[in-house]
């Protein structure tokens, strides 16, 4: 299960995720992202309450990063816990993503 809170303000879309970002929940987040990213210059994903991310979640993050790069925008992942941080390190995503 994934709880998604979203906020759009001054060209920045912020998404706070709680739960699991996996094969079941990634399409739901992806749809919300694509519905929102039209006029957005900055995307912020808050992972403070994210417990798990699967390869489907990682693919979705990569896709969102590519989309933001193409439009000259930025994407930042914040509040990454130790477990998710370790997954980012192992997969090389820590080199691809802006993590704060």
Structure characterization notes:
The protein is of the alpha/beta class and 100 residues long. It has one domain (2-99): Transcription Regulator spoIIAA (2-Layer Sandwich). The chain has four helices and five strands, in the order ββαβαβααβ. It has a five-stranded mixed beta sheet. The termini are far apart.
State the CATH class.
Alpha Beta
Order of strands in the sheet with most strands: 1-2-3-4-5
N-to-C SSE series? EEHEHEHHE
Structural class by helix and strand composition: alpha/beta
Strand content: 35-45%
**What would you say the CATH architecture is?**
2-Layer Sandwich
Q: How big is the Rg?
A: 12 Å
Q: Level of helix content?
A: 40-55%
The end-to-end span amounts to 25 Å
The total domain count is: 1
The biggest beta sheet, please? 5 strands, mixed
- What is the count of helical runs? 4
Query: What is the average of the pLDDT values?
Result: 95
**Total strand count, please?**
5
The best one-word shape is globular
The CATH superfamily appears as: STAS domain
Low-confidence stretches: none
Question: What is the name of the CATH topology?
Answer: Transcription Regulator spoIIAA
């Amino acid at each position: 299960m994934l709880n998604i809170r979203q906020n759009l303000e001054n060209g920045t879309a912020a998404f706070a995720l709680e739960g699991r970002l996996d094969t079941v929940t990634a399409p739901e987040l992806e749809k919300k992202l694509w519905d929102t990213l039209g006029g957005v210059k900055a995307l912020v994903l808050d992972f403070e309450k994210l417990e798990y991310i699967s390869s489907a979640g990682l693919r979705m993050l990569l896709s969102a990063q590519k989309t933001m790069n193409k439009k000259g925008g930025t994407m930042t992942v914040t509040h990454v816990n130790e477990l998710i941080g370790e997954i980012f390190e192992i997969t090389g995503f820590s080199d691809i993503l802006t993590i704060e």
